[in-house]
Design goal:
heterodimer; A: 16 helices; 71% helix; 2% strand; B: 353 residues; globular
Chain lengths: 361, 353
């Protein structure tokens, strides 16, 4: 166990988080220079008459919630399987359909029907993710290909489950989950992200899941010879992603008070994969830092909000986003990294030579 | 007797795809009757999906090399929009304008191919992320050019886009007794030429063989003295150029620019490549299979459209189910072969006897 801890500790150095932290710092600095009041927070009264905090910072952290939760699960799948799940957006639509179907079954949405809806939603999503996971782990199909199936037909399945285009949800509990609980000024999705992070953290603390996942991702054959079941670990990573997707879908549905199977969390798979990559994780599997991916998610959201604040047309945001992404991944690319390390080493050796020279004098 | 060389994985997967296409088309003739017997039906499938065939080839080339390119749909939309605006704005109203437009389309594709290829092969960034950024960039640039649809008014271009190759003996006799020839658009011919050229390139040209070697095992390719970085770079350049060409073919088929053009077509192209027997892991694949992959997807859409289930979600479900079937089939077939091969190598004495 101590050896295992050492490995995790070594893998968990700050090195991997360097690029996302620098990127975040630059974004924050840029915003502060552009508009010193960008991050100011004020108390306002919302439509429901509650006192809530409002400001760009709150809205960034709030709107990134679904993305942050999904990128946690995506990191695990990436690490274990060496590939990405591109069906999360479509499966989120299915999850939303399950949730709405159960929660909306009665006359009004009560706490009981809400909880039942969430439970059914999580179970249903896990079932769909198990389908993906089985294709990947048992049939040894590349994750991207295996999830392409649900990517192309998931939203249609959601439509089919629901039977109608955009069901509406009304009720105080929907508001409490999607926006704010009366009396608490911070949006609820932020608490859900923290809760998910704590849950995952506890799992990593009390089980060997991190070590097992990394060893399956680095060398599956060696992991099997050491008594780890790669099939089970891969399936488990998909199950965890399923839970994450279900929670994100509930947040998405509650925020909009309706389910639109075509637009619920649309394109989130691309953003989640980006978040994983920006967080410095290897998309080929192996070592991972969930914190990096979560940081990546907030970077993406901050970038989007910044562009909106600079009054860039929403339809053009993608182009600017692409340029920033390219800059971040180029800065984190292996070639540039090794160049920079070589440069630092040269400076260090020249300094030590100079120091040695002084010592002789 | 000389023992026959066993089918390679590539050929096996490709023959499965061709078999399924023939089976499906026969089923359509039996189930839905005469329409599918006309040659025009096949030609329509080709006309409507010419761009998809071309980007299918683009993706097959990249995937054989062990990479992925999801920016092709975005590059098509950018090319279509840029060409539409150029054609409407240019003073060259004759064939020269059309030629310059073709160069513009190829240039946009080439620029994306070179940029992405450089980032992937020389800077070692993951291809999925690079081409995802390429997709965002191209879609964003498209809406920057114009959010509203642009209709092409250039006369010689419209004349070219309406030109159809008429093949009389493949036509049919209409109810009023007139002989109606089968019509094939220029785009479809170009698409078939692209398939043939890519097939020959992958099979007989040194670059093509290098791409297979690179996708099969990068380390071995390096030891064989192949310039791995340049080969990977060139595979992205080819796919970029082909997506530019696909954009030109697209606007020839539908002479209007629109920001939502070719949405998600990259996933269709990937699906077609996989159905045709290309493996995402690289080293295995064939553009002929991809061609049949596109035709299979197109036939399903046609069948669903003709059987009255005109909801788009039926189409999605059917193509999803089909894709799942193919993926499972490939996995089972390949793992079965692997097991047999492992047994063979384990007992060479038995095999000789």
């Amino acid at each position: 166990m101590s050896a295992a801890k050492k490995i995790t500790k070594k893998a968990g150095g700050l090195g991997q988080l360097m690029i996302p932290l620098i990127a975040l710092a630059i974004l924050i600095l840029f915003n502060l220079i552009r508009d010193p009041g960008f991050f100011s927070i004020e108390m306002v009264t919302n439509n429901e008459g509650n006192q809530v905090l409002s400001g760009n910072l709150i809205s960034i952290i709030d709107s990134a919630s679904a993305l942050a939760i999904i990128s946690m699960g995506m990191t695990l799948v990436t690490a274990a399987c060496g590939g990405q799940d591109i069906s999360v957006g479509a499966v989120a639509a299915i999850a939303g359909a399950f949730f709405v179907k159960v929660a909306n079954a009665g006359d009004s949405i009560t706490t009981g029907s809400f909880i039942l809806g969430v439970l059914v939603c999580i179970l249903g999503t896990i079932a769909f993710k198990m389908f993906n996971g089985t294709l990947v782990s048992v049939f040894k199909i590349q994750p991207m290909i295996a999830t392409l199936i649900l990517f192309s037909c998931g939203r249609s399945i959601a439509y089919w489950i629901n039977g109608s285009a955009t069901p509406q949800l009304v009720g105080p509990i929907i508001n409490a989950v999607g926006k704010t609980i009366p009396g608490i000024p911070i949006p609820t999705p932020i608490f859900i992200v923290v809760l998910m992070a704590i849950l995952l953290g506890l799992v990593f603390k009390f089980t060997n899941l991190r070590l097992y996942t990394q060893s399956v991702g680095i060398n599956q054959g060696a992991a099997r010879l050491n008594g780890i079941n790669p099939t089970a670990i891969k399936l488990l990573s998909f199950v965890i992603l399923g839970v994450c997707v279900a929670v994100a879908a509930v947040i998405g549905v509650c925020r909009l008070h309706q389910l639109n199977h075509k637009t619920l969390l649309v394109d989130i798979e691309m953003d989640a994969i980006l978040a994983v990559a920006i967080g410095g994780n290897n998309l080929g599997g192996g070592r991972f830092r969930i914190l990096g991916s979560v940081l990546g998610a907030y970077i993406i959201q901050m970038l989007t909000t910044t562009l909106y604040a600079m009054s860039v047309d929403p339809v053009n945001v993608k182009a600017y986003k692409a340029i920033v992404i390219i800059i971040i991944v180029v800065a984190g690319s292996p070639v540039i990294k090794s160049r920079v390390t070589a440069l630092f080493n040269r400076i260090r050796t020249s300094r030590s030579i100079a120091a040695a020279g002084r010592g002789v004098e | 007797m000389k023992r026959r060389e066993p089918l390679s994985n590539t050929q096996l997967l490709m023959s499965i795809a061709i078999g399924i296409f023939v089976f499906m088309y026969t089923a359509a003739i039996i189930g839905l009757g005469g329409g599918f017997l006309k040659f025009q039906q096949v030609f329509d499938l080709l006309n409507d999906n010419a761009y998809l065939i071309i980007i299918g080839c683009a993706l097959t080339v990249v995937m054989i090399g062990g990479g992925i390119n999801i920016s092709v749909g975005g590059v098509i939309s950018l090319t279509v929009m840029a060409c539409a605006l150029f054609l409407n704005g240019t003073g060259m109203q004759n064939g020269l304008g059309v030629f310059v437009t073709l160069l513009l389309a190829l240039g946009i594709g080439l620029a994306f191919g070179v940029g992405q290829g450089f980032l992937v092969s020389y800077l070692g960034i993951q291809p999925f992320i690079v081409t995802l950024a390429g997709m965002f960039l191209s879609r964003g640039l498209t809406t920057m050019l114009s959010v509203n649809p642009v209709k092409v008014t250039h006369e010689s271009f419209l004349a070219l886009s309406k030109t159809k190759i008429q093949i009389g003996f493949l036509g049919y006799v209409a109810q009023n007794g007139n002989q109606i020839p089968a019509k094939l658009e220029i785009g479809a011919v170009v698409a078939i030429l692209v398939v043939i050229c890519s097939f020959l390139m992958l099979r007989y040209v040194k670059l093509g063989r290098n791409i297979y070697a690179l996708g099969g095992n990068q380390q071995s390719a390096l030891m064989l003295g192949i310039n791995v970085k340049r080969t990977r770079f060139l595979s992205y350049v080819i796919s970029g150029l082909l997506s530019g060409l696909a954009g030109f073919i697209f606007i020839m088929h539908k002479p209007a620019g629109n920001a939502s053009v070719a949405m998600r077509s990259e996933m269709d192209a990937i699906a077609a490549s996989i159905i045709g027997g290309t493996l995402l892991t690289g080293g295995v694949g064939n553009v002929i299979g991809t061609f049949f992959g596109v035709m299979i997807l197109a036939t399903i859409q046609k069948i669903i459209g003709l059987s009255g289930l005109n909801d788009s979600w039926w189409q999605d479900m059917a193509s999803g189910a089909l894709l799942g079937f193919f993926i499972l089939l490939q996995s089972v077939v390949l793992s079965g072969r692997e097991k047999r091969r492992a047994q063979k190598t384990a007992s060479p004495v038995l095999q000789k006897g």
